[in-house]
Specification:
The chain contains 2 helices and 4 strands. The protein is α+β, with helices and mostly antiparallel strands and about 70 residues long. The chain has a 4-stranded antiparallel β-sheet, covered by helices on one side. The longest helix has 18 residues, at about 50-70.
């Protein structure tokens, strides 16, 4: 119910076009994504323990996506 009400969700920006939806309840799960025109591209999921590596990996995936021109 908290997620539906919006109380347990944050959106963060990590640079290079990578953003994350952070579910703060019951745990700090993250869904990393990029936005390409009118498309949301899901890049990776992770938790607080792997956040640094997940951000790096998401930025790599996003750069690769843009380079390949997957429109």
């Amino acid at each position: 119910d908290a997620v539906i009400a919006g109380d347990a969700v944050k959106v963060k920006t990590y640079g290079s076009g990578v953003n994350a939806i952070v579910l703060t309840w019951p745990t700090k799960l993250r869904i990393y994504y990029g936005i390409d025109a009118h498309k949301t591209v899901v890049l990776l999921g992770g938790d607080q323990d792997s956040q640094g590596a997940d951000i790096d990996q998401s930025q790599y995936y996003w750069a690769d996506y843009l380079e390949r021109g997957d429109k």
